[in-house]
From TrEMBL:
Family listed: Belongs to the Nth/MutY family.
Protein name (record): Adenine DNA glycosylase
Function: Adenine glycosylase active on G-A mispairs. MutY also corrects error-prone DNA synthesis past GO lesions which are due to the oxidatively damaged form of guanine: 7,8-dihydro-8-oxoguanine (8-oxo-dGTP).
Keywords assigned by UniProt, alphabetized: 4Fe-4S, DNA damage, DNA repair, Glycosidase, Hydrolase, Iron, Iron-sulfur, Metal-binding
Keyword Iron: yes
Highest rank taxon of the organism: Bacteria
SMART domains in the cross-refs: ENDO3c (SM00478)
Residues in HhH-GPD domain copies: 35-186
UniProt-recorded Gene Ontology molecular function terms: 4 iron, 4 sulfur cluster binding; 8-oxo-7,8-dihydroguanine DNA N-glycosylase activity; adenine/guanine mispair binding; metal ion binding; oxidized purine DNA binding; purine-specific mismatch base pair DNA N-glycosylase activity
UniProt EC number: 3.2.2.31
């Protein structure tokens, strides 16, 4: 039996009953694909249902405020996906009358829709013979065919896309594409795959050569940057505080946070007080308490944030002050959300 037929047979017997598999609605498929980028199914599922409950159609999502979209996305990470999601919904409504394009080329023109997402929508919704290549597919193909080209190199990306097209089942592309992704997620898993029960084990090159744990190959291009965040949690006698919206193109764009004092190292209390005086020259700060003696290290793909929360008691706060019980209305990074769960006033 051919590679693609084995995948289809395995998928028919083992596929999970995921909600987006019961539809060909491009809006729902697109939503699930964007959410599941760099996110496990178990984590993404509640967000998928929550978004459909709040935005049943692409028109509803397009009409929503960015702040509301970011709030619903809170905790899912990689917030550029949420902003692109919102922008794409507007494009579909404004430029395509609320209907998703039905060709790979036109889908690629949508903001935040790359090769993988366009191929997934084209094949699953419109039965177009476009192969998907995501992390799961890279792993299956690299191991089965014994390919050691780095999957994140220009040469590797081209090679695997060509190979994926050669081995796909064009006649059953919808099930095949979902099948090979499912196979990579469940059977040919990143760590400790159950090769003894794999239907492809007789012809898997990596298994024969003892290279299952070595493939796929990925170039290590990420250089981690350490940053030191000091969040200023102001509190006045009226239980009010201050929040600010992050601007620019950096992390957590347009999310809200407590005022941030970034330093070049972890600060002792004396060092913090010294820098605070420079940061807040006109504010009379009373009692100062470091909430977490041990810094919280929040790891992002390219940076590690060493974070401390400083509780600052003040008599007065600016006119932009916010009642403490209103903070939960704002979209915030998960780092702030976790703090709000543990800090009680």
């Amino acid at each position: 039996m051919s590679f693609s037929k084995e995948i289809l047979k395995w998928y028919a017997q083992n596929k999970r009953p995921l909600p987006w598999r019961a539809t060909k609605d491009p809006y729902k498929i697109w939503l699930s694909e964007i959410m599941l980028q760099q996110t496990r199914v178990a984590q993404g599922m509640p967000y998928y249902h929550k978004f459909l409950e709040n935005f049943p159609t692409v028109h509803d999502l397009a009409k929503a405020s960015e702040e509301r979209v970011l709030k619903l996305w809170q905790g899912l990470g990689y917030y550029s996906r949420a902003r692109n999601l919102h922008a794409t919904a507007k494009m579909v409504v404004d430029q395509h009358l609320g209907k998703f394009p039905d060709t790979y080329k036109a889908l690629r023109q949508l903001k935040g829709v790359g090769d993988y997402t366009a191929s997934a929508i084209a094949s699953i919704c419109f039965d177009l013979p476009e192969p998907v290549v995501d992390g799961n597919v890279y792993r299956v193909l690299a191991r089965y065919f014994g390919i050691d080209l780095p999957i994140n190199s220009s040469e590797g990306i081209k090679y695997f896309k060509t190979l994926a097209r050669e081995v796909m089942d064009a006649d059953e592309i919808r099930d095949y594409n979902q099948g090979i992704m499912e196979f990579g997620a469940m059977q040919c898993a990143p760590k400790s795959p159950n090769c003894t029960r794999c239907p492809l084990n007789q012809s898997c090159v990596a298994l024969k050569e003892g290279k299952v744990g070595e493939l796929p190959v990925k170039l290590n291009k990420t250089k981690v940057r350490n940053r030191y965040f000091n969040y200023l949690v102001y509190l006045n006698p009226q239980r009010k505080t201050r929040m600010e919206q992050r601007e620019g193109k950096g992390i957590w764009q347009n999310l809200y946070q407590f005022p941030l004092l970034e330093s070049d190292k972890l600060l002792s209390t004396d060092e913090f007080v010294s820098q605070l005086r420079e940061y807040e020259k006109d504010l009379n700060v009373g009692h100062i308490v470091l909430f977490n003696e041990t810094p919280i290290v929040h790891k992002l793909s390219h940076q590690h944030l060493h974070t401390q929360f400083w509780i600052l008691e003040v008599d007065e706060i600016s006119e932009e002050s916010i009642p403490w019980d209103k903070i939960h209305d704002f979209p915030v990074p998960v780092l702030i959300a976790d703090f709000l769960k543990t800090f009680k006033i």
